[in-house]
């Protein structure tokens, strides 16, 4: 399962080139989905 996040709760925070702000949000979502889905789960921000 692949999930792509376009908008997140951290919008408006300062960004640093090469670092995504929503890594924590993606990790939480990935962990929650993996409890319901038996296959590999991948979450990324665009």
Task: Name some characteristics of this structure.
46 residues; alpha+beta; two-stranded parallel sheet; 1 helix; 26% helix; elongated
Structural write-up:
This protein has one helix at residues 23-34, and strands at 2-5, 42-45. With 46 residues, the protein is of the alpha+beta class. It has a domain at 20-46. It is elongated and about 35 Å long. The two termini are 16 Å apart.
Short characterization:
With 46 residues, this protein is an alpha+beta fold.
Helix-strand category: alpha+beta
For the biggest sheet, the summary is: 2 strands, parallel
Number of helices: 1
Poorly predicted parts: none
Using the CA coordinates, give the radius of gyration.
12 Å
The portion of residues assigned to helices is 25-40%
Question: How large a portion of the residues is in β-strands, by DSSP E?
Answer: 15-25%
Instruction: Determine the oligomeric state from the structure.
Output: single chain
Provide the fold topology:
Layout: E1 2-5, H1 23-34, E2 42-45
Parallel strand pairs: 1-2
């Amino acid at each position: 399962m692949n999930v792509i996040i376009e908008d997140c709760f951290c919008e408006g925070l300062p960004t640093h080139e090469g670092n995504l702000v929503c890594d924590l949000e993606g990790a939480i979502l990935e962990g929650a989905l993996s409890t319901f889905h038996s296959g590999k789960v991948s979450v990324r921000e665009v």
